[in-house]
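Lecture notes, part 5. Sequence design as translation. It can be helpful to think of inverse folding as translation between two languages: the language of shapes and the language of residues. The source text, in structure tokens, appears below.
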């Protein structure tokens, strides 16, 4: 009965005070009522209530009191309070009572009232609420006891207000938001409050008190799912890592915190955590065996982060895979991951339809997994790894993309080294770069968690030997025929090198003499082998053949285009032919010098194509051409008129172009362009597109465009991405170079189908470059059609 009487007395007294504050105009009566209510607060000069009375006040009356105080924001009695009385009898109610109820009332008030002095006052109260650690008190109040008895609706509302506070305040206070409510500052403060609540929880557990982390886990999950894990974990994870290093209670608290996160938010928490935590040991101390117990986290850590996404750095992969390898219960998942990575890496469909960046990501993960295997596991999985290595290398080496081929070589070498410790190992020749070095480093042992990297002390300045010249016994040839004889008959490596170095200069210096032996010298250069490992052999040979094709264009072009489809040529030689034709056509397309005779630029003016890569300068060509045809508004001044100038390519374009289209569909014993040799097909299509682009305004451009469209239309759905890129590049080149009226006539029967195909590629192709080129082609097609249709419409209107 005493407890019941106490509840009744509290209720009567509180209701009497609320009526006075709401209705009375006497400031003295209101202040007296405020002092009476302040007696139920835990701290302050007026605190007088017992624990049971204060508990009853908090449970049944606190929220109502706050609403009454908020309703009196503009009352006369509040204006008469001194600063000390205002803090003691008004602000203290928001900062000393139950923190969850106070936060909800404050946020609801700010969200409902407009810009006014009352809103400013509530914003001040919210700032004090955050600065005085009331969020930490709220979290700790939710941790005490076995669980919170409130309703799910109230809990979701509270979580929503806490997580979305920066967004809510930005919407209400724009453009006068306060620094504390900005995302970076607020979530950093929230991380500090997480630390406070978890510290209190650990101490309570050590004292034998029951605690619940469900609300804290839900707040953590909801914060991460809304995209704020970076700000939160930046301050929180280092504290968790340090606290769990030697304290088992802290480890158990972290494990339970992660286990209590709802499944719908688990992915965001785990993904954010693995990106911030430093090392697999720290991740293991925070997560424990969550990956074994929780299916959602297992899917994210063993499948999604490794096979479906590829944006993470190598350190994230090391942390994730090292975490799986550190515990006996988690180690079977490492084997499961390895098998999935092997299947993906050795899949020909995956190699063809996934970006190069994802292939590199898969390769890094695969090598890291293999490096973590024990000897017993390695022997058990030897057959599967061998099958993965052979099948995967075949798929990668068949690709037209140089980076993918290089990835296959590096991974093959690393797997071979790991599988065959005593036997012969695979060894490929490829260009070393940062990408290949990083792949090889995946096989290195994992660094210890606390390792400190030291600077290299090998900082000696190398001696400058750039002006040194090697003494040679042979003299360079002075005539083109001497150069030809040196390349054909000489067995002296020095003479061959000097002849090769002098060939381009002699051809350009004396064009008339070069025309006498142009085809013969081109044949010798095309078949020349690097028997003596001559420095810059490929570049020198290519530059000489380009010079010959420029000086004596028709005979050399006829010879090269004929030999392209001949038997007994390697794929490398056929690609050399295409590169020479492209580079020489580019040089010929430059304007003729004003003196009336062709200008023969030096070799430095010729852009040499790396024989080991697909030429990328076609992208710049298309971009520059599109920019030149794009109309821009708002620029002051009229552009300078462009003067049409002749070039040497227009008259010989057909000799470069049409022979390459004659025999592409005739497979030979050693050459199947539409079959397995899609590497050469991709280069051929790119070359034809470049030759088409360079023939702009040439008389033969219309015929070239018609033939090129017929050719690429048949291979527009090729499975190889480089071939599809070449097709789209060629289509762009036709749209840019072919006269508009001829283009409209050519596409009249297939216009809708062409637009639909380009739209499909722009929207759904797996390769980003193909999507970009398709968009450019659509823009060019629409511009050309508008240009041709608008005059017709104007004529009809007139």
């Amino acid at each position: 009965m005493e407890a019941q009487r106490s509840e009744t007395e509290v209720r009567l007294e509180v209701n009497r005070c609320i009526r006075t504050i709401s209705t009375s105009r006497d400031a003295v009566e209101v202040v007296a009522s405020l002092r009476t209510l302040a007696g139920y607060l835990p701290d302050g000069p007026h605190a007088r209530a017992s624990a049971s009375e204060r508990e009853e006040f908090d449970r049944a009356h606190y929220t109502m009191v706050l609403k009454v105080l908020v309703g009196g924001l503009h009352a006369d009695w509040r204006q008469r309070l001194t600063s000390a009385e205002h803090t003691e009898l008004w602000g203290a109610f928001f900062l000393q009572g139950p923190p969850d109820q106070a936060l909800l009332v404050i946020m609801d008030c700010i969200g409902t009232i407009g810009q006014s002095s009352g809103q400013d006052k509530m914003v001040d109260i919210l700032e004090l609420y955050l600065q005085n650690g009331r969020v930490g008190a709220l979290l700790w109040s939710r941790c005490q006891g076995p669980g919170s008895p409130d309703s799910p609706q109230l809990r979701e509302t509270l979580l929503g207000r806490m997580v979305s506070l920066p967004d809510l305040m930005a919407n209400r206070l724009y453009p006068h938001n306060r620094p504390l409510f900005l995302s970076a500052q607020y979530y950093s403060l929230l991380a500090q409050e997480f630390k406070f609540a978890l510290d209190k929880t650990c101490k309570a557990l050590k004292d034998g008190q029951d605690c619940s982390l469900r609300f804290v886990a839900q707040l953590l999950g909801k914060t991460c799912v809304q995209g704020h894990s970076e700000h939160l974990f930046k301050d929180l994870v280092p504290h968790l890592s340090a606290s769990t290093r030697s304290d088992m209670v802290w480890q158990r608290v972290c494990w339970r915190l992660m286990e209590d996160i709802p499944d719908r938010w688990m992915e965001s928490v785990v993904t954010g955590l693995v990106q911030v935590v430093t090392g697999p040991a720290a991740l293991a101390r925070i997560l424990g065996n969550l990956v074994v117990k929780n299916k959602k986290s297992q899917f994210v850590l063993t499948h999604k982060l490794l096979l479906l996404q590829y944006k993470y750095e190598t350190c994230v992969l090391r942390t994730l895979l090292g975490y799986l390898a550190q515990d006996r219960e988690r180690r079977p998942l490492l084997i499961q991951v390895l098998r999935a990575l092997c299947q993906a890496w050795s899949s020909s469909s995956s190699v063809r339809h996934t970006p190069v960046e994802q292939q590199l990501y898969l390769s890094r993960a695969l090598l890291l997994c293999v490096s973590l295997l024990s000897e017993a596991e390695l022997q058990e999985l030897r057959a599967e790894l061998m099958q993965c290595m052979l099948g995967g290398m075949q798929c990668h080496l068949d690709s037209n993309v140089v980076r993918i081929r290089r990835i296959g070589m590096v991974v093959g070498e690393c797997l071979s080294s790991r599988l065959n410790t005593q036997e012969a190992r695979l060894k490929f020749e490829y260009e070393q770069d940062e990408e290949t070095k990083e792949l090889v480093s995946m096989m290195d042992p994992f660094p210890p968690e606390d390792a400190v990297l030291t600077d290299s002390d090998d900082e000696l300045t190398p001696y400058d030997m750039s002006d040194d010249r090697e003494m040679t016994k042979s003299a360079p040839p002075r005539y083109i025929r001497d150069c030809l004889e040196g390349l054909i008959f000489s067995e002296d490596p020095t003479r061959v090198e000097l002849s090769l170095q002098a060939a381009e200069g002699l051809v350009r210096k004396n064009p008339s003499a070069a025309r006498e032996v142009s085809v013969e010298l081109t044949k010798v250069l095309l078949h020349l082998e690097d028997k003596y490992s001559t420095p810059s052999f490929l570049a020198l040979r290519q530059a000489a053949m380009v010079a010959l094709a420029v000086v004596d264009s028709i005979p050399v072009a006829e010879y090269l285009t004929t030999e392209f489809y001949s038997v007994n040529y390697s794929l490398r030689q056929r690609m050399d032919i295409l590169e020479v034709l492209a580079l020489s056509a580019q040089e010929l397309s430059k304007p003729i010098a004003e003196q009336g005779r062709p200008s023969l630029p030096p070799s430095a003016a010729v852009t040499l194509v790396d024989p080991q890569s697909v030429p990328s300068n076609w992208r710049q060509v298309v971009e520059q051409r599109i920019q030149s045809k794009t109309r821009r508004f708002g620029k002051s001044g009229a552009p300078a008129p462009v003067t049409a100038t002749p070039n040497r390519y227009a008259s010989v374009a057909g000799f470069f172009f049409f022979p390459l289209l004659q025999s592409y569909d005739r497979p030979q014993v050693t050459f199947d362009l539409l079959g397995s040799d899609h590497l050469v097909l991709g280069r051929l299509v790119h070359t034809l597109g470049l030759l088409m682009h360079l023939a702009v305004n040439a008389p033969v451009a219309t015929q070239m465009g018609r033939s090129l469209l017929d050719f690429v239309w048949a291979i527009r759905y090729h499975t190889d991405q480089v071939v599809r890129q070449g097709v789209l590049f060629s289509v762009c080149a036709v749209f840019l170079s072919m006269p508009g009226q001829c283009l409209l006539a050519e596409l009249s029967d297939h216009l809708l189908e062409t637009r639909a195909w380009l739209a499909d590629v722009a929207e759904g192709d797996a390769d980003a470059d193909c999507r970009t080129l398709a968009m450019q082609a659509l823009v060019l097609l629409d511009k050309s059609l508008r240009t041709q249709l608008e005059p017709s419409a104007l004529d009809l209107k007139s």
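The translated text above is only one of many valid answers, since several sequences can fold into similar shapes. Residues 561 and 659 are 6 Å apart (CA to CA).
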